[in-house]
Specification:
The complex is a heterodimer. Chain A is of the alpha/beta class. Chain A is about 15% helix and about 25% strand. Chain A is globular. The chains are: A alpha/beta, B alpha+beta.
Chain lengths: ~290, ~140
C-alpha cells in the first residue's frame, strides 16, 4: 500500500510562503493498494493536485469522505478526473438521517456555490453510505466508524495484506474524557487505529491553544500522542494543521511532539508532522512504514 | 485483524457528558446492561462505578434495589432505564434505591433512549431528588 499526502491543512486552505513546506491544501490523501486500486481519503483542495497527477485514461477510483465540512470536499469540483467521461468515481461517506450523501454533497456542487451541478459531471459518479460492517475495495478491507467530531464524521481503517492505515483527520477523543485512564472500548476511534502500521491523526492545536477550542472537534498535541500510545500505532503522522500555523511553528510543534513521545517511552522517529507530498510505503510484511519526501 | 468490541460513539459521548454532571446519571447499552454511572450516582449508591464495573440485572438488584413505594423490589425489566432502551420511549418513575451503607433514597427517575441512525444504542437515566423529601441526595 502506498500513501501520499496531497493536502495536510485543516479548516481552510493556507497557501503562502510561510506554509510552503508543510503545505496549504486541505485534507486529501491518495492511497494505491497492492492490486493497483486507487483511493482518495477526503476531497479537500489537495485532491486537485491528485487529479492532475492521475493518467488521462479510463480510471476507477473511490473517494472516502470522513465528513462533509468544506475543507474535506472543496476540491471535488476541481478534480480533473471527474470531468472525464471514462472515469468512474464512487464516493463513500457518512449517512445522515437528514438527507442522502448525494443530496448533501449537492448543496456544495450546485449554484450559487458551484458552476456545475452533480448531474452535469461527465464522469460516472455514484454515492454510497458507508456500511456498518467491513467491506472490500480491491485488495483492501475497509472499515469505518463514527468518531468524536462535530456532525456525522467517520474515521477509516484500510487493511491491505498485513499493513494497515488508519485515517482520523478530524477527531477530539479527549472531549470530556481522560485518554490515559479510559478503558480501550470507551475511546473514540480506538478500534480503527489499534496497532495500525500508519496512523494519520488530527493534531490541529498545541496544548496551549486547545483550551480556547474545546469542543471544536480537534485534538491537542498531547491528546494525539495519548491516542497513538493507547492504540499502539506503529507510526503516527499528525495531520490537519491549523491554518494559522506557519512552517516554523509546525517545526517547533513537531520537535515538541517527538520529545514528549520519547518521554513516553516511544521511538521519537515514530512521530512526525504531515507534509504535503510526503509518501509512505507500507510493505505487505514490515514492522514499520518507510517515508520519503 | 481483531477488533475490540468498541462502544458506539453515542455511548462514548453520553458517558463523557455524564462524567461532567453533578446530577446522578446512569447509562445502559442496547441490551440493557448497565455500562456506566457517574460520580454523583456513585455518591448516592455508596460505590463508585470504577469499583463496581459493568453489572448485570441480578447483581444490580441485589446491590441497590430499587424498591417501589410499598418496599417491594422492582424487577430489572421494569426499571425506567430498561423500559426506555427496550421500548425506545422515555420513561419516568418514582422509586427508592439502597446505598451500600443500607440507607435508602427516594428519587424520581427520568430515562430516555439513545436513538441513532443505526438504531437504539442504549439509554440514559437521570435521578432527581424526590419532592417528597428525605432522599439524602443533596441539591443534585
Amino acid at each position: 500500500m502506498k500513501v501520499k499526502l496531497w493536502g495536510t491543512r485543516g479548516s481552510i486552505p493556507a497557501p503562502g510562503p510561510e506554509t510552503i513546506r508543510y503545505g496549504g491544501n486541505t485534507s486529501c490523501v491518495g492511497v494505491t493498494l497492492a492490486d493497483g486500486s486507487m483511493l482518495a481519503l477526503d476531497a479537500g483542495t489537495g485532491i486537485r493536485c491528485l487529479g492532475l497527477a492521475l493518467p488521462d485514461e479510463p480510471t476507477r477510483l473511490h473517494i472516502l469522505l470522513t465528513h462533509l465540512h468544506l475543507d474535506h470536499i472543496q476540491g471535488l469540483v476541481f478534480f480533473a478526473p471527474a470531468f472525464r467521461p471514462q472515469t468512474e468515481i464512487v464516493i463513500w461517506g457518512p449517512a445522515s438521517p437528514e438527507a442522502s450523501l448525494r443530496d448533501r454533497i449537492a448543496r456544495y456542487i450546485s449554484a450559487p456555490l458551484s458552476p456545475v451541478e452533480v448531474r452535469e459531471l461527465p464522469c460516472d459518479v455514484s454515492f454510497r453510505h458507508c456500511p456498518e460492517s467491513e467491506w472490500e475495495i480491491g485488495s483492501a478491507r475497509i472499515r469505518s466508524a463514527s468518531v468524536s467530531h462535530r456532525g456525522p464524521t467517520l474515521g477509516y481503517r484500510i487493511d491491505d495484506g498485513d499493513s494497515s492505515l488508519a485515517y482520523i483527520p478530524d477527531h477530539e477523543p479527549a472531549l470530556g474524557a481522560d485518554l490515559e485512564a479510559l478503558e480501550e472500548d470507551w475511546i473514540s476511534g480506538f478500534e480503527l487505529a489499534r496497532d495500525a502500521s500508519l496512523l494519520l491523526h488530527d493534531g490541529q492545536y498545541t496544548d496551549a491553544e486547545y483550551p480556547d477550542h474545546v469542543g471544536w472537534g480537534h485534538s491537542a498535541t498531547s491528546h494525539a500522542l495519548s491516542f497513538a500510545r493507547r492504540t499502539g500505532a506503529e507510526r503516527t503522522v499528525l495531520f490537519h494543521h491549523d491554518p494559522l500555523h506557519s512552517d516554523e511553528q509546525l517545526d517547533a510543534l513537531g520537535a515538541e511532539a517527538r520529545e514528549r513521545w520519547g518521554e513516553l517511552g516511544g521511538d521519537a522517529g515514530a512521530i512526525e508532522l504531515a507534509a504535503e507530498r510526503n509518501e509512505y510505503e507500507l510493505p505487505a510484511r514490515a514492522a514499520k512504514a518507510t517515508a520519503t519526501a | 485483524m481483531s477488533f475490540v468490541t468498541q462502544k458506539p460513539l453515542e455511548l462514548i459521548l453520553a458517558r463523557n457528558l455524564m462524567s461532567a454532571l453533578s446530577t446522578p446519571a446512569f447509562l445502559v447499552d442496547e441490551g440493557g446492561l448497565l455500562v456506566f454511572y457517574n460520580e454523583a450516582a456513585g455518591m448516592l449508591l455508596g460505590k463508585r462505578f470504577e469499583e463496581l464495573g459493568t453489572v448485570g440485572p441480578q447483581e444490580w438488584g441485589s446491590l441497590f434495589g430499587p424498591f417501589d413505594e410499598s418496599g417491594e423490589p422492582i424487577p430489572y425489566d421494569d426499571l425506567p432505564l430498561v423500559r426506555a432502551v427496550r421500548a425506545g420511549r422515555p420513561a419516568h418513575a418514582e422509586l427508592t434505591v439502597r446505598s451500600t451503607d443500607g440507607s435508602r433514597h427516594d428519587v424520581e427517575v427520568s430515562a430516555f433512549p439513545i436513538q441513532t441512525p443505526h438504531g437504539s444504542q442504549g439509554a440514559i437515566a437521570v435521578f432527581w431528588p424526590s419532592l417528597a423529601g428525605g432522599n439524602g441526595m443533596g441539591p443534585g
